[in-house]
Amino acid sequence: MTSRVRSEALFQAAQKRIPGGVDSPVRAFRGVGGSPLFIDRGEGSRIWDADGNEYIDYVLSWGPLILGHAHPRVVAVVREAAGRGTSYGAPTAAETELAELVQEAYPSMELLRFVNSGTEATMSALRVARGFTGRDIIVKFEGCYHGHADGLLVKAGSGGATLGIPDSAGVPADYARNTITLPYNDAEALENLFLREGKNIAALILEPVGGNMGLVPPEAGFMEMVRRSTKGSNSLLIFDEVMTGFRVARGGAQSLFGIQPDLTTLGKVIGGGMPVGAYGGRREVMEVVSPLGPVYQAGTLSGNPLAMAAGVETLRIIKEEGLPEALEDRGRRLEEGMAEAARRAGVATWGARRGSMFCTFFQEGPVRDFADAQRSDTEKFARFFHAMLERGVALAPSQFEVGFLSSAHTEAEIETTLEAAREAFAAI
Ligand code: HOZ
Question: I need a surface site. Which of 132, 232, 333, 373 has the fewest CB within 10 A?
Fold first, then answer.
C-alpha cells in the first residue's frame, strides 16, 4: 500500500482553514472516498505527490495542460513576463496576440474578451445574450456544467453530479426560474420547447460534447436541431467550449460539427495552465459589451500578462505540433485498450472519447444523457479509481468527469496505463 502520510497530514491541516480542505469541491475525493493527494510538482505527463509518489496524470489540472506539466517553453515565457511585472490593469500587446491566435482557430469569435475563468466567461456570455435579445430565459441541458454562476447551477454536472447536489443552495428561486433544462440529445423536447417558448428565450447554452457527466457526445442530427431551433426563434446559441476548445479539435466542437454558434466560451487550454477564460462571437452581438454598449463586464486581472504569455505560447505550440489531432492515435489506443481490459476481466463498461478527452462508464450503456450517466456503478468506479492510483495512474476522482491526454504522454506510458488497467479491472 502506497504511503500517503504527508498528503493526509496536509489534508488534516487544510480542513481546519479551508471548507472541506479544498478550493474546489471535485478535488476532495468525495466521489471515490479517501483523502486527496496533495501535489508537490508536475513535469510532462507526470505528477509527484507530497510523499514523493509518482503518477501518470490524466487529470492535467482538469484539462488545460494539453502540453503536459511545466512545458519548458511555457515556463520560460511566464518567467520572462513575471520579470516585467505581474499585472498592470492596462492593455498589453499580448491580449491582441492571444485574441488573434484564438480567432484564427475560432472564426465565429469575431470579437472576444478575456476574463479569468470559465465561469466568468459563461456568466458574461449569458449577460450579453440577455442584453442583446432583451429576453430573460436561458435553456441548458441536464448534466452540462457551465461553471458555478447563479442560474447555471441547475441540474448541473461536474461537482454537482459527483456530490449528488442537483441544485445549489443560495441560488434565488426567482433567478433559477429563468433557466429551463432539457435532457441532452433530446431533439424532440428541444424542438417543442422552442416552438412553444422560443420568442422568450435569450439563449441556449450547451457543451457541444458533454464533458461534465462523464463524456457524452451529441447524436447525429442533434447539433443541427440545436442550430435550427435557436435561429428560428432569434435566440442565441452559445457553445461552451471551455472544455472542448483545442481539445476535441483545434477549432473545437464547432469545427468538428460544422456549426457556427453566435457566442463561444473558452478557458482551460487557452491559458496554458494560468487562470483564464474568454467569451466572444458575432461582432454585432459583442458590440453590446461595455465600453461599446450597455452590457457591463469588467475585471482587475482580466487579460493578465502571465496568463496571456502562457496562452500565446501554448497556442503557438499547438499549431506547430498539429494538436490535438496529433494525439488521435494515442487516444484511440487508450480507448480500445481500456475496453479490451474491461472485457477480459468481465467488467461491464461503456467507453466514450472525442479527441484528447475520454471516459469509461461502469455500465453497459449506451450513455446518451445525464439520466443514463447516473446509472453507472459509481462504487465500482471508485474501486477502479483507487486500484489505478495504487498502480501509479491518476484519473479524475469522479465518474462524472473525463480524462485528458497531453502531447507529453508517450505510447509507452499508454501501454503502462493499460497494464495497470488490466490489473485494476481484475482486482475489482
Ligand atoms: N471545471 C472542471 C469541471 N469538469 C473541474 C474543475 C473544478 O470544478 O475544480
Answer: 232
